[in-house]
Design brief:
Elements lengths: L10 E12 L6 E12 L3 E5 L6 H8 L7 E6 L2 E2 L5 H11 E4 L11 H6 L11 H7 L15 H13 L5 E5 L7 H16 L3 E6 L2 H7 L2 E6 L2 E7 H6 L1 H7 L3
Helix pairs in contact: 4-5, 5-6
Bound molecules: adenosine-5'-diphosphate and magnesium ion.
The site of adenosine-5'-diphosphate has 12 residues, from strand 2 and helix 1.
Length: 247
């Protein structure tokens, strides 16, 4: 995890003219239509948008899991869209933690074993018990995913992500379908990560969760950023409240 040096933050990601077209001809889908966005280092930014707006596509490209059709993504001064597949693998391994929309836990492994898997691929891992302690799962280490609640499974995926000691964490709708009390725990965990200097980008459909965790927000609709800025300003916007404030 990196140090926070000053209030004037460096840019972690600089995204310019990012486009993504899936498919060809009649079945073409323009998932991203020219996204420009800077993500400050050590800040927690939320990408707010409805289903189908391009959130997962955007996160996948920043995480080096997918390539754009056009545009550039610069991470700490390096254009990751120019990397070949070996370069992308190394980028993911050295810098990125990804928490997917669906948990991707291995059912036949315990909590400890699920997070331990990362030690085999990461360069600077934490110990499994350290990662599990960070998310409050110290007493559930020997439980299987099926013995954990949805919220605990989500915490476990976050622990697994922390094992790689990433500089960036990307979370795709981490609160989706979870009870409010669990969402509060997840929000607290995510805030802790940002406080430690990690750059965090998460996607979300509800501005209420965003208000609990993020310092900045960008609203995405139909593959375009409509507005971005400090979360307080975004959350105060009438249009945003109408579209994204669900109980
Ligand atoms: P979100 O995460 O905001 O729901 P996505 O990034 O998943 O949005 O999707 C954006 C658009 O791209 C949607 O219209 C979706 O149907 C389409 N899309 C996403 N992935 C693919 C794919 N692999 N092939 C074709 N279309 C896709
Ligand atoms: Mg999605």
């Amino acid at each position: 995890m990196q140090n926070v040096q000053s209030v004037e933050r460096a840019t972690a990601f600089s995204v310019q003219g990012l486009t993504k077209i899936y498919g060809t001809g009649e079945t073409q889908v323009h998932a991203l239509r020219g996204v420009d966005l800077d993500l400050p280092q050590g800040e927690l930014t939320v990408l707010l948008g409805p289903s189908g707006s391009g959130k997962s596509t955007f996160l996948n490209i920043l995480g080096g899991l997918d390539s754009p059709t056009g545009g550039t993504v610069t991470f700490q001064g390096r254009d990751i869209t120019a990397l070949d597949s070996n370069g992308l693998t190394q980028y993911r391994r050295d810098h990125v933690g990804f928490v997917f929309q669906f948990y991707n836990l291995i059912p036949s492994l315990t909590a400890r074993e699920n997070v331990s898997l990362v030690t085999e691929i990461a360069t600077a891992p934490l110990r499994p018990d350290e990662a599990l302690e960070l998310v409050g799962l110290s007493d559930r280490m020997d439980h299987f995913p099926a013995q954990l609640s949805g919220g605990e499974q989500q915490m476990l995926t976050i622990a697994r992500t922390l094992m790689g000691n990433p500089q960036i964490i990307l979370l795709d709708e981490p609160s989706e379908g979870l009870a409010p009390v669990i969402v509060q725990q997840i929000a607290a965990t995510i805030r802790t990560l940002a406080a430690e200097g990690l750059t965090v980008l998460l996607s979300e459909q509800n501005v209420r969760f965003a208000m609990h965790v993020a310092s900045r927000a960008a609203v995405i609709e139909r593959g375009r950023i409509l507005v971005e800025g400090p979360i307080a300003d975004i959350a105060a916007d009438e249009g945003v409240r109408e579209a994204y404030l669900t109980p």
